[in-house]
Design brief:
The chain is mostly helical. About 75% of the residues lie in helices and about 0% in strands.
Length: about 120
């Protein structure tokens, strides 16, 4: 593939990633749930990295390029670590819930609107 075609693919990816970040950031309630906070942060880093790749294909040498690259890689690895920690915590919660379900213990349901006073 030619360099121009690859650069255009990265540009298209950057546009889609930034569109996602702005649409999700301004229209969704991303900050009300851990999944949303992780998702918006990770997609923001992806959009930034893709934008920088496109920028670097046109401007090869500019002041601060290495510092910007190192900063982005640090952000990217940090996001991956946060995603990994979050996944392990969710899997641990699911394992605990599965063990309780297998043992026959009844788990209280908080906020169940279908249970009335006469049922108890």
């Amino acid at each position: 593939m030619s360099n121009l075609f690859v650069t255009l693919l990265f540009a298209l990816g950057a546009i889609i990633a930034w569109d996602f970040v702005f649409q999700y950031g301004f229209r969704a309630k991303w900050n009300s749930h851990p999944y949303g906070r992780i998702n918006i942060g990770f997609m923001g880093v992806i959009a930034l990295v893709l934008t920088t790749i496109v920028f670097n294909s046109y401007f090869h040498h500019y002041p601060g390029r290495n510092l910007l690259r190192d900063f982005q890689y640090t952000l990217f690895v940090s996001c991956l670590i946060v995603l990994d920690i979050f996944l392990h915590r969710q899997l641990r919660k699911e394992n605990v819930a599965d063990r309780h379900a297998d043992s026959g213990e009844v788990q209280p349901v908080v906020g169940n609107s279908e249970v009335s006073e006469s049922d108890s």
